[in-house]
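Contributing new records

If you add data, match the layout below exactly. Sequence lines come first and carry their own label; structure lines follow with theirs. Keep one chain per record. Anything else will be rejected by the validation script.
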Amino acid sequence: MASKPGILTDWPWTPLGSFKYIILVPWVAESIYSFIVKDEKERDINSMFIFPLMLWRMLHNQLWISLSRYRTAKGNNRIVDKGIEFDQVDRERNWDDQILFNGILFYLANKYIPGASHFPLWRTDGFVLTILTHAGPVEFLYYWLHRALHHHYLYSRYHSHHHSSIVTEPITSVIHPFAEHIAYFALFAIPLLTSLFTGVASIFCYAAYLTYVDLMNNMGHCNFELIPSWLFSVFPPLKYLMYTPSFHSLHHTQFRTNYSLFMPFYDYIYGTMDKSTDTLYESSLERKEESPDVVHLTHLTTPDSIYHLRLGFASLASKPYSPTWYFWLLWPVTLWSMMLTWIYGHTFVVERNRFDKTRLQTWAIPKYKIQYRFNWQKESINNLIEQAVLEAEEKGARVLSLGLMNQGEELNRYGGLYVHKHPQLKVKLVDGSSLAVAVLLNSIPKGTTQVLFRGNLTKVAYAIAFALCQKGIQVAVIRDDEYQKLYKSFGTKAEGKLVMTKSYSYKTWLVGDELTEEEQRKATKETLFIPFSQFPPKKLRKDCYYHTTPAMQTPLALENVDSCENWLPRRVMSVWRIAGLVHALEGWEEHECGYTMSNIEKVWEASLKHGFQPLRVPTQSKS
């Protein structure tokens, strides 16, 4: 929002929220109906082409968003080091408003402007005219409009909204108040109307021009340089005809230079070219891929989880994961992404963060949760994890933490397999089990004297059950096989606090994988479920409380946090991810994987020292 919002700041359909697309229904329905009922000679392909063009523009923009986020996470050719935060993601979530606006105007023009229908597919003379009218009047008028928008009156009421984003993403290009978009459409309509009124308009020419505008807008707002220097060497005048991402990045950091639209020659003519343009361009091109200090290795969960990754839909990634009904409409894209991950078959960078001087990257294994359950997939998954470990070693990472199912006992003995196979590893492997136990111990409400224990017995499960017994809290187990395994592990060290039970009337449950729906339904009202597993249980009971999987609130010193980690709330990080970061910050030299654990109290105190805070237990937050 601008500092002093002017008139026509909000879009007309803002009150509709996610239902804004309903305003397209009458137009799309009418164009389809007319195309069906009219004779072949009377059919207007123009109106039928508008909606597919809108879909193409959305897809085109999304591809740029994903590419930009992937490249800035890797770090090579990055322009500005500063990260983005949730406020920018929220501000830029409605980037498709301008496509919706343009689409409605095209439908109106098609219906009411004489000659705006029944275009041929292509006309070369119309294409040439479009190029000339863009390079001439559009670029010139935009330059002076842009300078006017930087006058304090218009800037404070309109353009400051766009400049709230110092570090730009492709979608930043279209984040403007509604009034600005009216002015921009009037400018970009000049080539379209000129070709229309001169009778040389064509469908593909319109589509090509809009694609060009989107391409240049998205490219110019990427936070990485991608235009190779050899282009300017082969054709030197190109520097006056095409801007670069670093060129426009300076406009967002310096504000009073580099005003041009896509062709910088007006900045050269009027003396507003930033003096550091060439230097920044060259230094950005020379910048190498960033070497992380800490790598967190995760994996995909469900087929539609790809949309919730930071590389997917930015607005979805900024909220905790939850299945969404409209994902079934995207099944072709989902299927394509699954095939791509299968073909690509290599770990990819998802996110980067910085904590003081420590660089953290999150890498993802291109495997889904269900694949980890198949024995025939284990060798492939282990190979991918091992490759990631060795790649992290090669890049100079100090710590690699294993997230989600990348640390399964049956898969790789909690990561111990890789240490055994590569005893000279310099990168320290961390499974986060000690911090997970510490967080679980501090999640149990004060005054609790007994808990019900149920779930698949993992390294964390054994450790938390034993720690509770040592603290004098009774651990009741409802399944005989689980009780026997725990008793065999603890023996007399349980001090009589490990007991069998057939009662479900415990107020605090510690639960893991394999908790059944039937068991949940047997819980008494206001039971608190605290998961010790990597994945949360399904929330079946509205009259009970569900804590998150082991996690902590991150300090503000952790930068570039603009997405949620799976189902966790904003600025909350899983302990498996935090553990690797704390391990590096403390400079610990031992591995924490396999069947060994670090000192629980030491790890807990270290995480608090660095600003990570425990989450409130649901019953406490409602009291």
